[in-house]
Structures are given as C-alpha cells and as structure tokens.
Amino acid sequence: MVMVVLFLGPGLLVHAQTKAAARKSAKKRPTTATREEVQELRKEVAAQKQTIDDLKGMVQRLVESNQQAAAAAQQAQASATQAQSAAGEAQQSAVQAQSTAESAQKEVAHTQAGLAEAKTATQAVDKKVSAVAKQFGWNGEHFFLKSADGNFLLQPYGYAQTDYRVYNGDGHPPDTFVIRRGRFGFQGTLGKHYEFALLADAAASSGAVIRDIFLNFKPASAFQIQFGQFKEPFAQEVTTAAPNLDFVERSLASLLYPSAATAFRSPGVVVHGDLVGGAVQYWAGAFNGKGITTNNTTNEPEVIGRLRFYPWRKKKDSMLQGFAFGGAIAHGRSRGLSNETSFGGNLPDAAFNFFPSFSINGPVERYNGEFTWVKGPWAVRAEYDQLNQFRRALSSFAGGVGQTDLPGVVAKAYYGQATYLLTGEKRPENGTPRVKHAFSMGEHGWGAWELKFRYAKIQAKTPNTLISTGVLSGAEAHTEQFTTGINWYPNYWVRYMLDFSVDRAKDPTTANVLPQNFFVVLQRLQFRF
User: Fold this and answer.
1) Is the pLDDT reported for residue 183 higher than 90?
2) For residue 381, what are the domain limits?
3) Could you tell me the pTM of the whole model?
4) Number of independent structural domains in the chain
C-alpha cells in the first residue's frame, strides 16, 4: 500500500496543480477556447488516463504479487509447521532409536558374555572329549583303552579265518569247511618298560585254548627279556603272524620247526633286541620245547639262538633297503620213555602224510638259513631248514633187546616264494598292505590284488637197521609242492585268499598213500580287528 501511495502521490499532485493552473488560466483567459487548446487538453486527458490505467495495472500486479507472497508465506508457514512436526517426530524416533540401540547394546553385551561362557564351556568339553579320545577309541588298527597318565594301555585284538578245502587224488581227504583259527586276546603296555599279551584260540584242535601269554620287559630296544608262553623264534616264517601269511598255509619247511604240532609255541624265556638302529636283531632263548602249556620231560631245555641282519636298512634310496638275511640254531632233547616221536609228516594243507613217525630219544638239533627282500609291491622270501632227531638206546622200543642206538631221523626242507601287488601298494615285511582304493565305510574301491607263487620241497629218511630180532624198517620220502594263487584285500581288516596247489607224493612211505599228484584248492576268508 505504501508503494501505491508513493506511485500515486506525485501523479495526483501534478494533476491537482494542473487543474489549479487551469482554473487560474480560465479566470484570466476568455471563455472561448481555441481549437488547438481543446486538442491539447484532450491529449493531456488521454495521457492522464493512460497514466491512471498504468497505475491501476501496477496496483493490480502489486495486489496479485502480495496475494502470491501471502500464499507463499502461508505455504512456507505450513511447511515450517510440518518440518517442525517432522523434526519432533525425528527427535522422538532418534530418542527411541537411541533407547533401542542402548537395549541392543546391552543385549549384545549379554550375548557376548553368554558366548564367552559357552566358548569356555565348549573348550572344557573339548578338553574332556580330547582327553577321553586319548584314553579310549580306535587307532586305525585296534580299539584301545588308555589311562590318563598314559602308563597303562590295553588293546583288544583278534582274527577269524574260515577255510573251504577241495582235494583231488586217490585217498584224498573229504572236501570241507573248517574254522582254521578263531583267536581273541589283549595286548598292551604297563609303563614305559613292560609289554604284555594274552591270546586264546576258540578253534584250537589240540584242546589247549591259550596260545600266547607273556610279559616283555623292555629297559631298552637293544635289550629285552620276554617270558611266558609264545612262539619259539626259530625262522622267519614261524615269526610271521598268522593274519599276515602270504599263503593259506605255511610251507613244507614249517613241519621242521620247534613245537610245530602246537602252533609253534612253548613256555620259555628269551632275551632279544635291536642293535645298530635295527640293522641287527638277535634272539637267545630257552624253552620246554614240548608244546603249549606242556612241562618239560627232560632236565635240558630247548635253547635257540637266532640272528637277522638288515645291511641296507638305513639307505632309503637303495634297492636293497628291504633286504634281510639270517639264520638260527636250536638244540633240545627228547625222551623215549615219555613216548616222544619224530616230527609229524602230515602236510600243512592236510592232503596226505608223507613220512611216518618214529620213537626218538636223545638230542634234537635244528638249523635254519633265510632271507627276505621287499621293495614296493614285491616280496621275495626263501628259507632252508634241517632237523636231526637222534634215536639213542632205542632198540628195546623197537622190539629188540638191550639199549642199542638206532640211526636218527634226518629231515631237510626249503622253499622260495614271491608275491606282487597288482594295485601298487607297498608290501610290508610282516604286515598287511595299506589299501589305496579300499572297499569299506564310505568307500567303494576295488581293494588291493596280489599274485603269488611258491615252490617248496621236503625230504626225510631214517635207514633200515639190523637189530637182534631182525631188520628194523626205516623210511625215506620226498615231497614237493607248487602253489599259486591270489590275495584280495577289500580293506585293511578283510582278506580273501585263494591257493591252487599241486602236492607231488613221489615216494611216500606211509600206508594208503601211492605216488601221485594231489590237487588242492584252499580258500580263506579272514577278518581281523
């Protein structure tokens, strides 16, 4: 409005002055106006009208601008009100958010404290589980139970061997299923210097169930003392554990081992150890020599000495690293008055008996030479054994008179064998190969496959003897055996064995056995744990 007054004021003042001048002029001038004056007056009036119209337009524009400004002001005020309201809401939301954040922070702190407690509890449980796992579990080969301080370790172990035997030949045994071995026992340690074992055989045919029961005192690896009942350490094949044999049955040479009729075991004691980092092994022992849980019948124990050498054991890159050789001697005594007889001539596969038994009395001597070479999938083994059983002062036992000495029984045997793992596993000297592609829990591999071949020969004789009552018949016989077959290891714990043997009875001296070839098929399914 002030601007209207400012704009209209000068114009109205001029207009008033103009009218006043005009009135004064009118008073002075004459009443009659000239034409030019009229036209001039009309021009002035038109100019004033135009000025008025312009002023009206300006006023109208000012009014409209004022209205727009008022509307903008109202809108701005409304926006400010809304902004203020939004700011209030935002402030309230911020307060709520801060409160929520504080609550969340408290909850996180509480959760973190709970997690810390849970972690501590989990670690404690893990420690307990780890401690329990170290005390009880499965080590890949055996279950075990162990004391917390590690001074006591107990491992149950065992194996079962089920065989099916097929024969062909005149007078052959019947085909049959047989539980060859069903053994279960415990082995373990007491402290750092004591080892023990107990092994029983539920399938024992001799009636004696206990196979091994011994304690080994081990102050150092180079000097150990083992006593109880266990295998007499005479040859490499007899010291090979039954689950690790390459063939279903041991070779013909095993007929000449000590205590062959009772799983090669006898009560006794042996000093043994490893020298030069295992490059030399030795055994020196004394045994009853009469078999399982059997008392000695003489005042003289059966003594055994054995050495085995690994000249290249420490040379990892040598082809001969797995080469070993050695030998053993044994000396014992038999007693005729106890009805002791010479070695049994029944073949390990039970195809036939190639040599009869004779009464013996006096010294018993055994000799052994052996070697083994293992390299990668290959294993080659050979052995020679000789047995001399004396027959002193035995003529009266043969129907004669007096105490005349008779010729002794002399037996010799040897074998050579080779095995090869087709699937590339390494052949251990005395153990089961680690199967690369096992068929077991979660695995569906083809297992390990092994080819094998063995040749063995045995001969024994005692000559005819002239005694007071006539001629005492002796005997002489030779037998050789060819064996081939396969071993399949689906995994470490299961093995299937298939052996094809030709047993040649060249000149048997036992009744009902004619010179011929016996064909034998042996199958075995073995489970161990």
Assistant:
1) yes
2) 139-528
3) 0.76
4) 2
